[in-house]
Design goal:
This protein is an all-alpha fold. It is built from nine helices and no strands. Helix 1 packs antiparallel against helix 4 and helix 1 runs parallel beside helix 8. The longest helix is centred in the last third of the chain and has 31 residues.
């Protein structure tokens, strides 16, 4: 199987994650109101295929990489696993202490995989730059990817707030969008400073 170009790989991931968010917002909520168990399960698991596709794309990309690139992927994955684990344990402890509701904690768990992808991408980009690899500079810039995710989360927050009336979940999505926007600004500023130093 031929390896995709970096841009084609990133484009497929972005499309799959867009489908994931759309299904999460439009199809998944139908599970709560469905009485037939098989339909409830079908609606509840509807967001899983885009996630499995992204995992398959990432595995395919890593397996087709050379040893140095595989090492940068491993570092990115390690950083993402640690970050998401800390996020999960903090959210869990706060939910158990009733600082947040269990519904909020469940909503936070749904966003774990997109957060994992974003942190993995940033960690891998950092590792690649550290090893002097220019591979991360090809394709879509990191700042643009962060901006893309911020846009998706902003749309999700608006949809949740205006169509569902769930201010807590909308606030969570908006907070994540603000974090992604901050990441986009950081990486854009960093790239600009590097260009001015050259």
């Amino acid at each position: 199987m031929a390896r995709l170009s970096r841009q084609a790989h990133q484009r497929r991931i972005m499309i799959a994650m867009t489908i994931y968010v759309v299904v999460l917002l439009l199809v998944w909520p139908l599970a709560r109101s469905e009485s037939a168990l098989w339909l409830k399960a079908l609606y509840a698991l509807a967001p899983v295929p885009p996630i499995l596709y992204v995992i398959w794309l990432m595995a395919r990309w890593v397996l087709a990489s050379d040893e140095l690139e595989q090492r940068t992927h491993l570092i990115g994955l390690g950083v993402a696993a640690a970050t998401v684990s800390v996020f999960g344990i903090v959210a869990g402890f706060l939910a158990v202490a009733h600082v947040f509701t269990l519904d909020w904690a469940a909503t936070a768990l749904i966003w774990i995989f997109p957060l994992l992808i974003v942190v993995y991408s940033a960690g891998r980009a950092y590792a690649a730059r550290r090893y002097g690899s220019g591979a991360c500079d090809e394709g879509t810039p990191v700042a643009v990817r962060f901006l893309y995710v911020a846009g998706l989360l902003t749309v999700a927050a608006a949809y949740i707030y205006w169509h569902k009336g769930d201010a807590e979940s909308a606030g969570f999505a908006a907070g994540m969008a603000a974090g992604m926007l901050g990441g986009a600004l950081f990486f854009a500023l960093r790239q600009r400073l590097r260009r001015s130093d050259e």
